[in-house]
User: Fold this.
Amino acid sequence: MGSSSRMSAPQRREQLLDLCARIVDVEGFHAATLDRVANDAGVSRTVLYQHFGGLDGLFDAVIERATDRAGEALTAATADWSAVSPVEAMARVLDAVDADPATWRMFLVLPPAGPPALAEALERARAEIRRYVIETLGGGVSETDSVSDPDLAARLMQAVADELVRLRLADPAIFTHERLLDQYGAMVKPLMGRPARRGSKRTT
Assistant:
């Protein structure tokens, strides 16, 4: 049982979120009951109701915090993406994954048996990431320097990046940064290439 020492309201809230997130990461959402979280925190269920209104509110708060953390990490990783290569940006993402693996497991590894809010939060996060990648690939550059289909390119790059993160989370000893980044560079390089010039013939 966790400590029941007196904490400020914000400290207690963070403690409860940490405990719930830890249970979810190790055992899944189904294991994170109010009784389990309260017992691990050394508090009564009433404290959880005071902070979150119930289990749904607790899950919403855990997911919202994880989304914010992932978003902050991605923003930091790609803040100057125009000045770095996609491989360097991906390396920064992997650094963020290593720094907070539980957050990334919540979005990319946990089975889809979680609450509906998880699927909704995941789709919102992916849509925002995809929008940023699309703008990076297709915005503000000349036609000969942009990809021919930025939306499709962004989706493909995101799919590859998602799988690299899953592999890193599954076995970091086998799926090292060097191994993942070498393959990522080889796969995304064609997506960053020049499209056929206007008037040139494409082969099918």
